[in-house]
Input
Amino acid sequence: MNRLFNWIKALFNRTMDKVEDPEMMLDQARRDMMTSVQANREKAIAAITQRNQLEKMLADNRAKSDSLNKQAETALKQNNRDLALQIMREKQNVDATIAQIQPSYDQATTTVENVKVAMRRQEEVVKKRIAESLALKAQWKQAQIQNSIAKALDGLNFEDQFETSSFGAASERIKLAQSEASARSEMQNDSIQGKVMAMQDQTMNSEAESELQKMEERLGMKQSSVVVPDVAPVVTEADASATQIVGNSTTTPPVPGEAEKALEELEQKLKNSN
Output
């Protein structure tokens, strides 16, 4: 039960927090101050009215006392002592009433003066509070505008919006295509360059072989390419014993002079081609 009560209380407080608008609160405070000033003003008016009534009563009784005093003097002048005595008794009653009214009038006058001072101070405070409320309302409006601007800017992203858009995707595809084209061009250049290098190696090998043959000839390590007439080889007994007979056929190993001659002819062709 307590948990339910606390939940209802928290829900009510949160709702009140949302409902309580500072501008409405300031307006209500201003209305309350004006109501208080108006009520105090009515009380001050009532006090002043009572003071004025006492003042009028006091003035009337004083005037009556003066009138009775004159009537008593007139009676004495006419040797009417009894009438003058009655008038003086009435005058004493009026003077007693004046004596009773005077303290009340003095107190009412003091109270009215104090009320006037308090009213002036309260009106000054109210004016100050109203000015402060206007300033607070302006600050509240400014805070609302700043919050609205901040909320609007929260949805903006100047750093990543192009990365996730179609513009970013298109840029990535273009970069990928450029990389692929560069790779293909590199492979093609490597193939052509390899062929050129292979041809250069072949040419260099031919030139080196030619220089090597010339060096061998100068050093006498190899006979010059001179045509030697064919001479029938002399077959010795040792060579005859090396003849191999398989079935009815006989195989004779090649003569070393013919192989040398074939090699020299090949070398000569290579030199002519160079």
User: Anything to note?
Assistant: The first helix runs from residue 2 to 19. Residues 164 and 256 are 82 Å apart (CA to CA). Residues 35-136 form one domain. Strands lie at 244-246, 249-251.
